[in-house]
Design brief:
385 residues; alpha+beta; 6-stranded mixed beta sheet; 5-stranded mixed beta sheet; 15 strands; 23% strand; globular; amino-acid biosynthesis
Length: 385
């Protein structure tokens, strides 16, 4: 049921005619309350799409009645006219719901630098409003936000006391989120204020979605929104809710990872023995973005020298002659030099784990990435055509 698993939410996914494929391309998620508390995290890219700029302002009020999302066009780098298109979209949703546009968040995904066909999008909003449901609406909405995703991505969990968290996400390329990942809507029927939702969302995304770094490219459109209806009447403890929310975000992160454009390997980079968690994340990201290593893993070559080279480009605390590296459990590097026989490393499975011990402290972090394939290059060399 995705975003409609919690009580108080309806959703829809329709064909508005934004995609040449004729597939669903517009989604609407509505919070029927009684609460409309909400929080959001957005891309840190300084080049922000119009929907991000609009939704950032909406979320400052801590209340969201509805989220409208479209695929088939990013509405990024479209100037004042593009922002007006976002405003008009929110106004159309508000009119359908008999409410104010100030509580309507807008999300878009697709090609940068082109105006959206508003003559198709606005009637699509009307169609989505007419099809809102709790039954099939959640899955239809998750399908409508896909671009190069091969499958819809959904997750839900039930917490103690009967409340639920449901979610949908999209993202297959430009995965280096900086506090979000492509587009993601999370719903809950717990009764929590916006301030609590904000803290929980930042904590959950900080160790999950924010550490997915498939290609080092931060989108102009990334947004993760968390909406609470309060319909279950449950008021969970903040730490309990955050833990469950983190489970949902971790599930979505895994789904995004394995569906990343062209990827044949899902790589977990575990950095341990760091002087700080920030050091561990910095080292993990450096390894995740090393194209030589990503090529090596695609070719099933356990080239640990490329791992050390990536570590060495950071300002993390470590001594080069104390570094240790394991690939799929084989410690191929010990003390900054060769370790166990690299021929023992089996890189045939899809899942690959690279463990780096900095031998500098008690902290750790995991960053997830993928290999670099010819399929990824092909898909992105022809993306706009």
């Amino acid at each position: 049921m995705s975003v409609t698993a919690p009580q108080g939410f309806r959703a829809a996914g329709v064909v508005a005619g934004l995609k040449d494929s004729g597939n669903r391309d517009l989604a609407l998620v509505v919070n029927d309350g009684p609460s409309r508390a909400a929080a959001g995290v957005f891309t840190r890219n300084r080049v922000k799409a119009a929907p991000v700029l609009w939704s950032e302002q909406v979320l400052k009020g801590g209340r969201v009645h509805a989220v409208v999302l479209n695929s088939g066009g990013a509405n990024a780098c479209t100037g004042p006219a593009g922002f007006q298109d976002t405003h008009a979209t929110a106004e159309r949703v508000a009119a359908a719901l008999g409410d104010s546009a100030g509580e309507v968040a807008v999300c878009s995904t697709g090609l940068i630098g082109e105006r959206l066909p508003m003559d198709a999008l606005l009637p699509g909003v009307d169609a989505a409003a007419a099809e809102l449901s709790r039954g099939d609406g959640g899955l239809a909405a998750a399908d409508a936000i896909r671009t190069t995703d091969t499958v819809a991505k959904i997750s839900f969990r039930q917490g103690a006391g009967g409340y639920m968290i449901g979610a949908m996400a999209k993202g297959a390329g430009m995965l280096a989120p900086s506090l979000a990942t492509m587009l993601c809507v999370i719903t809950t029927d717990a009764d929590l204020p916006a301030e609590t939702l904000d803290r929980a969302l930042r904590a959950a995304t900080g160790v999950t979605l924010d550490r997915l770094d498939a290609d080092g490219c931060t989108s102009t459109n990334d947004a993760v929104l968390l909406l609470a209806s309060g319909a279950a009447g449950a008021v969970p403890a903040e730490d309990e809710f955050t833990a469950l929310l983190t489970e949902v975000c971790a599930d979505l992160t895994r789904q995004l990872l394995v569906d990343a454009e062209g990827a044949s390997k899902a790589i977990a980079i575990e950095v341990v023995g760091a002087a700080s968690e920030d050091d561990a994340v910095v080292v993990g990201r450096s390894i995740a973005r090393n194209n030589l290593l990503k090529c090596a893993i695609h070719g099933e070559d356990p080239n640990w020298g490329r791992v050390l080279s990536a570590v060495g480009t950071t300002d993390a605390v470590f001594e080069p002659d104390q570094l240790n590296v394991a690939i799929n459990g084989v410690w191929v590097c010990r003390g900054g030099s060769f370790g166990d026989d690299r021929d023992k490393v089996d890189l045939r499975p899809r899942d690959v784990t690279i463990t780096v011990d900095l031998a500098a402290g008690p902290h750790s972090a995991t960053v997830w990435t993928t290999d670099l394939t010819a399929d990824y290059v092909h898909e992105n060399s022809a993306y706009s055509t």
